[in-house]
Amino acid sequence: DDFTRCRLSQQKERTLGIIKPDACGKVGQILDAIFQSGFKITKLKMCQLTRNEAFEFYQEHQGKTFFDGLISFMTSGPIVAFELMGVDAINKWREVIGPTDSCEARKGAPVSLRARFGKDNQQNACHGSDSLASAAREIEFFFPSVAAVRQNTAKLCECTCCV
Ligand code: IDP
Fold this sequence. Notes:
Layout: H1 2-6, E1 12-19, H2 27-36, E2 40-47, H3 51-57, H4 67-74, E3 79-87, H5 89-97, H6 102-105, H7 113-117, E4 126-128, H8 132-142, H9 146-156
Antiparallel strand pairs: 1-3, 1-4, 2-3
The structure holds inosine-5'-diphosphate.
Inosine-5'-diphosphate binds next to helix 4.
């Protein structure tokens, strides 16, 4: 369940972060900031989302005015997705990235990643899971467990290796 998957001890958690398409030229600086904030990166990959994948990832925002723009933006180029581990990682990563609107973020202190690298309230450089439940879902989305991969393969293929 979400507790055992993402809350590793009373304080230690896993969370899912993304460097969005607008900030993929700043991967080095953002990963540096992640290490300096004390997180451990336990999984990482670069990929480009299809529209279907972006729809699924952001399903909770379907119907909102910014949804179509968000899907176009998130599929416009490569992203870097990673799993972070650390004490209170979910909230701490949200603090490091800062408020949703990068312009708002620039008014705040300490200087957040969205303040440094984001443009506005859509192109805001980074994503962070907002709860234990979304961390579990989002980590599984980008880094599916071996069992889930096997199950999916079996659905597509009935050869003797897959079933
Ligand atoms: P969060 O990423 O700070 O948790 P959410 O409300 O979950 O913010 O929104 C998801 C993403 O949708 C944001 O990171 C941003 O890219 C985009 N977004 C949110 N609100 C707006 C808006 O008002 N206009 C355009 N894009 C938005």
